[in-house]
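W.,

You were right to be curious about this one. When I first looked at the sequence I had no strong expectations either way, so I just let the prediction run and decided to look at it fresh. Below is the sequence, 213 residues in total, followed by the output.
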Amino acid sequence: MTTEVNEADTPAPPPREVLTATRLRRWSEAALLLVGVLGLIGFAYPTLVFLDHLPQVDPRVIGVSVDSSRAAIDQQWIVQALISAPVLILVSGLPVGRLTGPGSLPGAVAQAIGGLAVAFWALAGTAFANIFFFGPDDHCRYASCWPLHEQIWAMVVPGVLTGIAMLVMACLVTRLAWWIRTLVPVVVWLGTVLVQHAVWTSYLLEIFQGPPR
């Protein structure tokens, strides 16, 4: 004698626990966010701005104060890029459920803080370096110390745009997939850095070495 089993009477399988609700997931995300934020606060300036790879014009003399060969993308440049890209990814947190799902609120907060840190270091770090380098006894060749301030703005473009991208992505945490919000700052940063290196020696240095026009 066979007993017919009613599907309605069959107990449903227990729902899978949401990934964000597990303790391991929360602690893992907290650890990743901490590493990412500390990395951006402590190392965003030397790793994201790439000042050592950009020859600069000394406003006190005519000519390039740094060997132009350092503008090439060398092994050190690649190492810095391999450090910077994962840090930008870590600071965005983990996805909720799937990779195509949105990110978490802690990830958005950490990404916003990281964006502020990137923009701050790009602006303040470069400005402090120039203030320290040019003391009261230094005399600039041209008025307004050309091209000191113009070089500063040209150098900080990648860092500032990356910081802005991180802030915008953090505000769109519930509207964009996690992987989009994570990769956009990396693409913005790497793209602007590559463009900066492409036009620096071939175009900008020629402008900086002459009198202001």
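Here's what jumped out at me. The first helix runs from residue 23 to 48. And, maybe more interesting for your project: DSSP finds five helices and no strands in the chain.

Coffee later to discuss?

I.
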